[in-house]
Each structure stands twice: as C-alpha cells, then as structure tokens.
Design goal:
By secondary structure, the protein is mostly helical. 59% of the residues lie in helices and 5% in strands. It has a single domain (3-141), classed as Up-down Bundle (Four Helix Bundle (Hemerythrin (Met), subunit A)). It contains five helices and two strands; from the N terminus they run ααααββα.
C-alpha cells in the first residue's frame, strides 16, 4: 500500500467519526468554552467541517484553501453540509492527484510551513483529529453525550 492509498483508507475510516462529533454538538451550546482562552465548541466543530477544503487546496494548488472566517457562527446543518461537500471534493482531488505529485509536489502555508504535499495533507488530517478530541472533551463538559469515536464511549447505551 502506498502512502497515498493509506491516506485514502485512513480518511474513509475517519470521516464518519468527524461527522458524528459535529452531529453531537448541541444546538444551544455553540458558544460553550471550557476556559476564557479556549475556542468555542461551535468554532471547533466548524473547523472540522471545513478542514477538508484546506487539504483539497494543498492537493490542487499547493496551498491550503482555508478561510478562518468560515469557522464563524454557523448552524449545525450548515456545518454538516460543508463537511459533506468538503469530504466529497477532497476524495475526488485525492483520486486525481498523481502519486508523483502526492509524494514530491511542494506545498506552502505562508512563509512558516513549506513541505511536500503529502506531509502537509497528513498534518492537516492530524490537526483535525486533535480538534475533534478537543470537541469531544467539550461535549462531556457541557453535559452532552460523547459519541463513539474509537470503540465504545462511556455514554453509549448499555
């Protein structure tokens, strides 16, 4: 299995887990924060919705297509729609990018991060996994059930 094939397989496994985390966000708790310096739960969920668009930009243009304003106030339905669109487009972009471009194509995020496309794509996926974990801890703290992400959750019905 190539690195690109492994990324595609990993994404197929992870995508439903991201969607479950967004779906678990209570509609009335988007502004919830665990600390004054923390991001809001809604902002974290919105990032999970648009992160895929950033990876598509890495694959197609060599730079993440990421607008932080897209993470501003959104309904859960809007987040889920953006998630579905972004995942679908990224999967198409992954199939089109050649193995050579995946392995050796260059990507940059401003002046601070320059790397090969595959490394930056993995970095954005790991970042999304990190933020999903943050959102999961927020869910528990705000009294919402935490969905099963890797195996059963303590909140799963017995």
């Amino acid at each position: 299995m190539t690195n690109k094939e492994f990324f595609i397989e990993t994404l197929k496994d992870e995508a439903p887990r991201f969607k479950k985390a967004i779906e678990a966000l209570p509609d009335d708790k988007h502004d919830y924060k665990v600390h004054e310096r923390s991001r809001t739960a809604g902002n974290l969920a919105a990032q999970l919705a648009v992160q895929w668009k950033a990876i598509s930009g890495i694959l197609t243009a060599g730079q993440p297509n990421f607008d932080p304003h897209e993470m501003e106030k959104q309904t859960k339905d809007e987040m889920l729609a953006k998630f579905d669109q972004g995942i679908a487009q990224m999967q198409k972009d992954l199939e089109v990018v050649s193995d050579e471009e995946w392995e050796n194509g260059q990507a940059a995020m401003g002046e601070n991060w320059k790397d090969k496309k595959y490394r930056m794509a993995w970095g954005f996926l790991f970042d999304a996994i990190h933020h999903r974990g943050q959102l999961a801890t927020f869910l528990r703290a705000m009294g919402s059930p935490v969905p099963s992400i890797y195996g059963p959750s303590a909140d799963d019905p017995k």
